[in-house]
Amino acid sequence: MNRTAAVSIRLDGVRKQYDDGTVAVRELSLELPAGELTVLVGPSGCGKSTILRMVNRLIEPTGGRMWLGDQEITAVDPIALRRRIGYVIQNVGLFPHQTVRDNVGTVPKLLGWPRAQVADRTAELLDLVGLDPARYADRYPNELSGGQRQRVGVARALAADPVVLLMDEPFSAVDPIVRGRLQDEFLRLQQTVRKTIVFVTHDVDEAVRLGDRIAVLSEGGKLEQFAPPAELLAKPANTFVAEFVGADRGIKLLAVTPIPREGLRPMPDGKHEAPSVPADGSLRDALAALLEGDTGWVVVRDGDDVLGILTPADVYAVLRR
Fold first, then answer.
1. Alpha-carbon distance 215 to 39, whole Å?
2. Helices and strands (H and E) in the chain: how many
3. Are 23 and 220 in contact (CB under 8 A)?
4. CB 90 within 8 A of CB 168
5. Are 47 and 217 in contact (CB under 8 A)?
6. Distance of CA 220 to the CA centre of its chain
7. Phi, psi at residue 6, to the nearest 5°?
8. What was the pLDDT predicted at 321?
9. How many alpha carbons lie under 13 Å from residue 121 in its C-beta half-sphere?
10. Cystine design at 6: which of 24, 35, 159, 239 (Cβ 3.0–4.6 Å)?
11. What fold, for 257-319?
């Protein structure tokens, strides 16, 4: 897996204006780091999906330049370009007359891969997205749940090991419980494949949960802020961003702020019963444990090793940094 190295995406003054004069995106410049998941978020009509479709040239830009790594996007054949880019949409778009196996193998077959290699790749990817190939490979899309179809869509998008994965509100059509599970699975998957991913959503909570970086856009594709989730929540660039991410951004911030390993207080003398949290958890985990206990502090552990303790004052101090 991940045989093809991820590449950065760079937009330089990219513009999209339609024939009726509507400007969907006005001179957007943005660099998306290789191997990271960048989320595009903003209100309806801010050009999120238009930007995504310009990257794989389903929509041609009116002006500006775009690069995948050191290759200018508009200088290559669009069909060849799309075979290097995985694309996942809201309603998946699986071919209803083809089995899961055939759907996943679509692009490798178009690229002329040997049949055995396509079969191996299909089984590998179904397993990776949590679908047992023995159970699901020969089913048809109408025999799957909405969440299972989305997993197949992700597997198909990854089949030819693309350098970039574009995802346009891929989880919005499923119910909240399934959506949460898909987000968990997708985070696990990204830890494995480390692709350059551009993910469009209108849901701030989803953006904060999934993104390495978040680009907040306003009408006309104007970039209001581009930052990691914790920075975006702690220091909104302007009133628009603050209002868009919501008045509860402090609560969201707890979930994306890791527990510090440096500066923990030493364990008090004597034996104390106190709740504990893993060192790779978040401040939200620490705060929840603090509320459950009555000692006024929580133990931070790395496996069986005690690293120190956190108090409510420590949590507050981290958030204020």
1. 6
2. 14, 13
3. yes
4. yes
5. yes
6. 23
7. -70, 155
8. 65
9. 24
10. 35
11. CBS-domain (3.10.580)
SS (H, E, C) 218-239: ECCCEEEEEECHHHHHHCCCCH
Q: Percent helix, strand and coil across the chain, each rounded to 5?
A: 40, 25, 35
Instruction: Please provide the DSSP assignment of 282-320 as one string.
Output: BHHHHHHHHHH-SSS-EEEEETTEEEEEE-HHHHHHHHT
Using the structure block, give the residue that is written with the tokens 């500066």. Answer: 263
Q: What is the pLDDT of residue 246?
A: 83
Query: What's at 290, amino acid-wise?
Result: L
Which residues of the chain have a pLDDT value below 70? 1-4, 92, 270-272, 319-321
Token readout for 240 is: 């628009």
Q: Are 66 and 198 in contact (CB under 8 A)?
A: no
Domain covering 9-247 assigned CATH 3.40.50.300 in the classification: yes
CB atoms within 10 A of CB 203: 15
Pairing between β-strand 37-41 and β-strand 213-218 as defined by DSSP bridges: parallel
For residue range 261-319, list pLDDT tens digits in order. Answer: 888 888 877 666 788 889 888 888 888 888 887 778 888 888 888 888 888 888 777 76
The pTM score is 0.81
Burial class (CB in 10 A: 0-12, 13-18, 19+), 243: exposed
How confident is the model over 187-207, as pLDDT tens digits?
888 888 888 999 999 888 899
